[in-house]
Structure formats: structure tokens, C-alpha cells
User: Fold this.
Amino acid sequence: MTENDIHRITQRLLYTQPSQDSDVAILLGNAMCSGDIARAAADRFHEGRFSKIILCGGVPQKTRTLLHRRVNNIFRRHAVHGGVKLSIPLSDIFASATEAHHMRDILRQSDVPDSAIAHIDNESRNTGENFSFIRNHVLSSGYKTASVVCAVFHQRRALETCKKWLPDLDAMTVPVYPYKIAPDIWREKWAQIPFARAAMQGEDYRTNESNPDNYYKKGFCVPVKIA
Assistant:
């Protein structure tokens, strides 16, 4: 990648939005960092930022991949990681559950009551299904505002997919930085961290309108102007 590519991708995908309270949090599971997403949501729940939570994701946790990455992180500390240990909790690695059920377990461990979990989608396999499968629940519950909690590299496509399926829902994204990588390190070093680089390039491919095979043309999401 060129420096121009890195700058463009950073500006397009690593945006931040003003933090706001919302009616509900929608947690988009990620087989590589669902635990981080749930813990971030638990923190915001205890801060009173929302009172209800929807969990999405039917993909099993990628145990072998996460374990391999943890072992590599222990024995291979590269300077390009900025001295940050890419920590992956053992509880995430050996979770024999889908994304949604793993996040539910993490929320329980974080003292979030079951009464706060309004809906669990344990079947969806991609972002489009995340939102299409919860659409009826969101509409019937009358939610007006939502916080979409997801991995930072996923947030633009998540918001734009939400807008396709729930155009009247006032949604904002809450980015989660996987494996405790600080936001400033992520912004500066992501192109030098293999898993981050692959994730960002993949999202850029999907949501880059100059790509003839982008997700807008496929009808998977709709462009959203993000301030």
C-alpha cells in the first residue's frame, strides 16, 4: 500500500462520532473479537448510555486462530506493534459458543442483568443478516436511537448496512479496538499489524465506490455521509 492508500483508508474507516445516549445497543459479533465488543458494551451500559442490548452473530468463535495468535504474540514481540501486547483473553479463545452467546456470557460476567438483553440473534452469518434478522424486533420495540457496537474496522459498513435495513433508526457507531490496542496506536500502526491491515483492506474493498464490485452496487448497504 502507498502512503496515499493508508491515509485514504484511515480517513474513511477510522472515524469517530460524538458519544451519545441511545435507546438500545446493537452488538455485532466478530469471531475474532466478540469478547472485546461485549466488554466495551458492558462498560457503556453501566455508565447509563443505554438500557437495552441486542446481540447478533451465529458464527462460532475461531478458537484455533485466536490461540495461534496469542502464542505468536507471546513469543514474537515486534517493534511495529508499538510495544503494545496484543492481548487475547483465554476466556475468548476457548469459548465454545457462537458470537452472540459468547457476548451474552461476557455481559453476564460483567454484571449486566439478563433483563437488559432484549433480543439475541444466534443465526446470522454476516452483517446483512445481522440487521435483517433483528429488523422486526427493532421496529416492534419502537426504538428510535441505537448505538452500533462493533470492531473499529467494521463500523462504516455496519452503519451503512443498518441504514439499508432500518432507514428510520437514528444510529451511531461505537468503535471497539480489538485486543486492547489503544486508538492512537491503532491509527498510527494498523498498516504494520497483519490482522489489522487485512481487516482494513477488506473493508476498503467492500465500501470503495471505485471498486466495480463494491457492496453498494450489490445492494448490501447504502452510502452514508458521516460527519
